[in-house]
C-alpha cells in the first residue's frame, strides 16, 4: 500500500493487499504479532540512535527490524506447535543491523542486476473526468491510494518511474500486458512504447522491453492471428503475453484438451513459432477474482506445450500459485494438484528436466510468500529443484503494489534452512542463485546485457521531457458501449 503523508509504516510492511487478481487473506496472528513487535523494536532502536521513529522506519535498520521481527515470531510459532525450533525459511541479518546501517546494508543492499519481468502501468487522459458509474481498472489496486488528487494518475508513467527506478534497485523492466482488448486498454502497445521513449530519453539507454498482447480466444481466431502478425511487423515486442483463463466462458488451454473450449491453443503456439519472438508469457494461478476459470488458470497444459514446442520458452507467470487454503508446501501425490505443485506435476509428468524451456515467474507470488517463511522455503525450494536454478525469474507485479523495494530487500535476506534442504532435497538459496533469479536468468532469456547503471532523474526533468513528446491520445473507453464491452470482455472484473 502506498505510504500517505503523516502515516507511520514499517519499512517492509506486512499489509494484506492484492494486485486485483485475488482476495487478500486477512492478517494472520503471526503477521499481527510481527508487526506489533517490529514497531516496538523500531521504538527502541530509534531512541538509541537519537531519531524519531518515523525517521528510523525509512532507514535500512528500519527494514531490518521488519524482517527480524517476522523471523523471530515464525520461530516461536513453530516451536509452540511442537514441530521444531527451526523455521524452514528465515530472514538472516546480523543482529546489529537494527542499529548499524552498514550491517543492515551488508544484506539488504546489493549491486545485482535486477530485471523485473512483470511490470504494469496505466496511462489515462486525465483531462476527461472519471466515469463515476464504473470504477476504472486501477481503483481496486492498492497503488490508487498514492495521494494524488486523481487516483488514476497513481498509475502513470511518472509514478511508474518513481517506484521502479528511484525508489527501488531495479535495473531493467519488462512491460507486461493486461487482459483487456487493445482499443479499450490503458496499457496497450502504444502506451508501452511511449513509456520506452520516456525512459530511454531520461536514462540514455535501453532498459525497458514490451510484451505483445495476444487474445486468440476473442472473436475470430484467424483475425487475432493476423493482428499478432501485424503487431510483430509494426512494433518491437520482446515476447507474447496471454491469459488462458479469461473470461471463464472463453478459457482455453495450449494443448486444446477440452474440446468444448475454444480450440486455439495449438494454433496460437504455431503462430508464435512462425513469427516470433519465441517467448510465451502466460498467467497461471490466481483465478479467484475477475470471472476467470480456475481450470484454465492451471499450469497443467504447460508440460505438453513445452514438449511439443521445444523451440519456445514458456514463462509461467505467478508459477501457478493460487493462495489455496489446502496448499501444504510439500510436493506429494496428495498435493500434486494444488497451487505451484501443479506446475511441478506437469513438468514431471512430461519428462521435462530442470532448466528446460519452462520458466517460473515470481510476480505477486513472492509478495505473498514472504509473509509465510516456511511456505516460501517450500515454494522456492521446489522451483529450484524441479524447474531449475536457471529458470526461476524475478517479477513483482508492480506498480500495483507501489515500489518493489521491500520485496527485493526481503528476497536478499531470505534463506532456506539446512533442515529443509536435508529433509526435502531443496537446493540452498545461495547468493549466486539469488543473483540468477533477480536478473541473470531473465537477461539470458531476453538477450540483454546485465548491466547495473543507475538512472538518476528528478520529477521536473521527467515532466520537461514528456512535454517534448507528441500530445498523447486518450486510450480509455469513451462510450457506455465501450465500458460495457470492457466489463464483458474482462470477465466482469472491471
List keywords for this structure.
494 residues, 10 strands, alpha/beta, disordered C terminus, two-stranded antiparallel sheet, eight-stranded parallel beta sheet, 18 helices
Task: Tell me what you see in this structure.
By secondary structure, the chain is an alpha/beta fold. It has 18 helices and 10 strands. α1 (29-49) packs across α3 (60-80), α3 crosses α4 and α11 packs parallel to α13 (373-387). The chain starts with 28 loop residues before the first helix and ends in a 5-residue tail after the last helix. α5 links the parallel β2 and β3. Helices cover 39% and strands 9% of the residues. The model is unreliable at 1-6, 469-487 and 489-494 (pLDDT under 50). It has an 8-stranded parallel β-sheet with strand order 2-3-4-5-6-7-8-9, sandwiched between helices. It has a two-stranded antiparallel ribbon with strand order 1-10. The protein is globular, with a radius of gyration of 22 Å. It has helices at 29-49, 53-56, 60-80, 101-108, 157-166, 189-203, 221-234, 265-275, 294-297, 302-308, 341-349, 365-369, 373-387, 405-413, 418-424, 431-446, 459-467, 480-489, and strands spanning 89-91, 115-119, 172-175, 208-213, 239-243, 279-283, 313-317, 358-361, 392-393, 414-416.
Amino acid at each position: 500500500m502506498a505510504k500517505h503523508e503523516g502515516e507511520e509504516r514499517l519499512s517492509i510492511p506486512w499489509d494484506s493487499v492484492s494486485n486485483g487478481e485475488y482476495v487478500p487473506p486477512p492478517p494472520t496472528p503471526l503477521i499481527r504479532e510481527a508487526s506489533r513487535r517490529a514497531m516496538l523494536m523500531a521504538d527502541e532502536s530509534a531512541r538509541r540512535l537519537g531519531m524519531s521513529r518515523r525517521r528510523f522506519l525509512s532507514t535500512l535498520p528500519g527494514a531490518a527490524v521488519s524482517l527480524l521481527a517476522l523471523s523471530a515470531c515464525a520461530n516461536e510459532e513453530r516451536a509452540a506447535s511442537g514441530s521444531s525450533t527451526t523455521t524452514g525459511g528465515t530472514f538472516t541479518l546480523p543482529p546489529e543491523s537494527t542499529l548499524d546501517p552498514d550491517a543492515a546494508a551488508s544484506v539488504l543492499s546489493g549491486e545485482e542486476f535486477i530485471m523485473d519481468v512483470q511490470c504494469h502501468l496505466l496511462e489515462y487522459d486525465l483531462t476527461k473526468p472519471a466515469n463515476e458509474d464504473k470504477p476504472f481498472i486501477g481503483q481496486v489496486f492498492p497503488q490508487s491510494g498514492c495521494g494524488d488528487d486523481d487516483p488514476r494518475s497513481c498509475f502513470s508513467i511518472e509514478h511508474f518511474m518513481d517506484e521502479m527506478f528511484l525508489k527501488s534497485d531495479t535495473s531493467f523492466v519488462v512491460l507486461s500486458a493486461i487482459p483487456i482488448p487493445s482499443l479499450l486498454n490503458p496499457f496497450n502497445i502504444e502506451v508501452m512504447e511511449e513509456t520506452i521513449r520516456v525512459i530511454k530519453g531520461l536514462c540514455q539507454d535501453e532498459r525497458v522491453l514490451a510484451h505483445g498482447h495476444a487474445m486468440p480466444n476473442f472473436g475470430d481466431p484467424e483475425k487475432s492471428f493476423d493482428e499478432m502478425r501485424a503487431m510483430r511487423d509494426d512494433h518491437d515486442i520482446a515476447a507474447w503475453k496471454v491469459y488462458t483463463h479469461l473470461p471463464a466462458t472463453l478459457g482455453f488451454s495450449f494443448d486444446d484438451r477440452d474440446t468444448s473450449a475454444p480450440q486455439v491453443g495449438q494454433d496460437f503456439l504455431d503462430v508464435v513459432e512462425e513469427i516470433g519472438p519465441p517467448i510465451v508469457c502466460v498467467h497461471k494461478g490466481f483465478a479467484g477474482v475477475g470471472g476467470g476459470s480456475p481450470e484454465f488458470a492451471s499450469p497443467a497444459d504447460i508440460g505438453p506445450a513445452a514438449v511439443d514446442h521445444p523451440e519456445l520458452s514458456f514463462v509461467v507467470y505467478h508459477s501457478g500459485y493460487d493462495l489455496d487454503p489446502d496448499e501444504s508446501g510439500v510436493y506429494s501425490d496428495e498435493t500434486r494438484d494444488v497451487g505451484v505443485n501443479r506446475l511441478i506435476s506437469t513438468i514431471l509428468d512430461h519428462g521435462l528436466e530442470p532448466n528446460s524451456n519452462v520458466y517460473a515467474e515470481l510476480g505477486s507470488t513472492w509478495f505473498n510468500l514472504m509473509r509465510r517463511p516456511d511456505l516460501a522455503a517450500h515454494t522456492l525450494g521446489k522451483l529450484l529443484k524441479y524447474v531449475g536454478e536457471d529458470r526461476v525469474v524475478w517479477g513483482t507485479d508492480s506498480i500495483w503494489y507501489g515500489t518493489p523495494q521491500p520485496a527485493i530487500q526481503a528476497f536478499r535476506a531470505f534463506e532456506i534452512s539446512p533442515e529443509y534442504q536435508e529433509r526435502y532435497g531443496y537446493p540452498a538459496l545461495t547468493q549466486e542463485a539469488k543473483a540468477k533469479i533477480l536478473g541473470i536468468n531473465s537477461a539470458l532469456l531476453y538477450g540483454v546485457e546485465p548491466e547495473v547503471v543507475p538512472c538518476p532523474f528528478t520529477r521536473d526533468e521527467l515532466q520537461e521531457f514528456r512535454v517534448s513528446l507528441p500530445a498523447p491520445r486518450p486510450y480509455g473507453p469513451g462510450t457506455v458501449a465501450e465500458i460495457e464491452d470492457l466489463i464483458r470482455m474482462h470477465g466482469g472484473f472491471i
